[in-house]
Design goal:
Blueprint (H helix, E strand, L loop, with lengths): L13 E7 L7 H11 L4 E7 L5 H10 L4 E4 L4 H7 L2 E2 L1 H6 L4 E5 L2 E5 L2 H10 L16 E4 L3 H12 L4 E6 L2 H5 L11 E6 L12 E4 L23 E4 L8 H8 L3 E3 L1 H17 L7 H14 L1
Parallel strand pairs: 1-2, 1-3, 4-6, 7-8, 7-10, 8-9, 10-11, 11-12
Antiparallel strand pairs: 3-5, 5-6
Helix pairs in contact: 1-9, 5-6, 5-9
Length: about 300
């Protein structure tokens, strides 16, 4: 839905935004505004606050107003999937969507979080690619909430042989086993108090919890059992260097912050709404980093 002149008419500016509650902290508008300016597109990307009670009403209002679509963040990803008329393979498997595209009155749902996660591991925007041994060794994952679903799906697709998942509530881990059904990947449920011991032999540790986020307690965890070839990925991006990433760097381990995932998951969304495939560049990363530092 690029806004451009053609021989027949002039299209109205394409509009999109991010739905969530709260949504004031989102850096997505900064990312999409950068791409809109870079590609000289007449469009906009807005913060769209919506409570759980108002979510469906707000979405239908966007459709009626001619929006191209919207991103969806907590706590609405499962509701977004349920509301969709059409869902892509990832959204259907995860039963959650972070991207809505409005076409001909229908709501199309997709999930780009797994794409953003894997692209972050592949490096880019001044970040080197990590050793691929992570995909042939067990992966340790902290948390079994909504943020973990897409990451688990991506790791399964990458052929990881074993996922060791630790969560305060063990029962929640069982609700994620469907993501591995029919695949060679095995899920091992690990008690929260044993989270440090599960790191032995792992090629990757992923924190999907909010521990370490600004205003939250730090993730208290020893990394001494992680092999020297392992990497540590924290999906938190405020602060950019969480306590667990700082500890990983002190050990000389490769680290990936949550900003990388945020940037890469936005690429398919922008392409779907505005008709251009944008690039994640060092300049864009520096722009968001500067904003994070100013707001900290």
């Amino acid at each position: 839905m690029m806004s451009e002149k053609n021989s027949n008419n002039i299209k109205t500016p394409a509009k999109a935004g991010i739905l969530g509650w709260p949504v004031t902290h989102s850096r997505s508008p900064l990312i999409h505004d950068y791409w809109l300016k870079t590609h000289s597109i007449d469009g906009s990307y807005e913060k769209l606050p919506a409570t759980s009670e108002d979510f469906e009403r707000v979405v239908m209002g966007l459709v009626a107003a001619g929006y191209a679509g919207a991103n969806v963040t907590a706590p609405h990803k499962e509701a977004a999937f349920e509301l969709a008329d059409v869902a892509d393979t990832n959204a259907a498997r995860l039963r959650a969507a972070n991207l809505l595209v409005f076409k001909g009155g229908d709501i199309h749902a997709a999930n780009t979080d797994g794409y953003g996660f894997l692209q972050s591991l592949r490096g880019g925007a001044d970040e080197p690619e990590i050793d691929k041994s992570w995909s042939t060794n067990p992966v340790a994952l902290l948390g079994a909430g909504g943020a973990s679903r897409a990451i688990i799906g991506a790791l399964v697709d990458a052929g990881v042989p074993e996922l060791r998942i630790s969560n305060r509530t063990m029962e929640k881990i069982d609700t994620l086993r469907f993501l591995c059904e029919g695949t060679p990947t095995n899920i091992s449920a690990v008690p929260w108090d044993d989270r440090a011991t599960m790191l032995e032999g792992c090629g990757l540790l992923v924190n999907t919890t909010s521990l370490g986020m600004s205003g939250q307690p730090a993730l208290d965890m020893s990394l001494e059992n992680l092999p020297d070839f392992a990497a540590v990925f924290d999906i938190v991006y405020a602060p950019l260097e969480t306590p667990v990433l700082k500890a990983a760097k002190l050990r000389g381990l490769r680290t990936i912050d949550g900003l990388s995932m945020l940037l890469y998951q936005a690429v398919p969304s922008f392409s779907a709404w505005f008709g251009v495939a944008p690039a994640v560049t060092p300049e864009l990363r520096r722009l968001v980093v500067t904003n994070l530092e100013e707001k900290s």
